[in-house]
Every structure is written in structure tokens, then in C-alpha cells.
Specification:
By secondary structure, the protein is mostly beta strands. The chain is built from no helices and 11 strands.
Length: 122
């Protein structure tokens, strides 16, 4: 099993920045990739960004390109999502996920965190 704990969410004004963290524990050696997803009220969970654990390949949603950066600290078993130029439409619960493929599809990730709320005000 892999446990994931997100942190770093909160309220922010439009144009501001936040850095989300996701700390992994447990059988972390089984992780090939980690991703960030988000879900706004009444909407489906959507892909934001993903990164492979070892080779640092990355994927980004079009909405995240140029504004968000995913990175990882191997020694700390932690993945980060640096978000800048935030917009009200970025408001959502952000979830961290881990799995054995790098993909935009949430069902391909076996492990999920509890989520952290990001609220962007205009």
C-alpha cells in the first residue's frame, strides 16, 4: 500500500501563487508516476499534471501549461505542484495520485490522497 498526504491548499487571490505538496509513504518503491488532479463542485475529476518518479518525464493539461510546474523530491518522497497566475476557475479540491503508468486517466492511478482545497477569489 501507498499512502499519500496533500498539503498547501488554501485561499488565494487571482494572480497569486500556491505550492501544493504530496508526501508519499509505504511501498513507495512501487510508484512509477504521480499525478495531480482536481475536482470542482458539480464537475468531473480532471487531470492537471503528472511526473514519473525516476526519469522526470512530465505531462500537463492544457489549462496548466505555462502556469503550473510539477516536480519531485526523491529523497523526501514528495511531489510538488507549483501554481502561479491562479484564476478563479482553478478553484477545486486538488488530489494527488500514484500509480504504475504516467497518464492523464484517473482510473489508471491506484492510490489517492484525501485532497486539499484551493480557492481562488477574483
Amino acid at each position: 500500500q501507498v499512502q499519500l498526504v496533500e498539503s498547501g491548499g488554501g485561499p488565494v487571490q487571482a494572480g497569486g501563487s500556491l505550492r501544493l505538496s504530496c508526501a508519499a509513504s509505504g511501498r513507495t518503491f512501487s510508484i512509477y508516476a504521480m499525478g495531480w488532479f482536481r475536482q470542482a463542485p458539480g464537475k468531473e475529476r480532471e487531470f492537471v499534471a503528472a511526473i514519473t518518479w525516476s526519469r522526470l518525464n512530465t505531462l500537463y493539461a492544457d489549462s496548466a501549461k505555462g502556469r503550473f510546474t510539477i516536480s519531485r523530491d526523491h529523497a523526501k518522497n514528495t511531489v510538488y505542484l507549483q501554481m502561479s497566475s491562479l484564476k478563479p476557475e482553478d478553484t477545486a479540491v486538488y488530489y494527488c495520485a500514484a500509480g504504475q503508468v504516467i497518464t492523464t486517466q484517473p482510473r489508471q492511478y491506484a492510490y489517492w490522497g484525501q485532497g486539499t482545497q484551493v480557492t481562488v477569489s477574483s
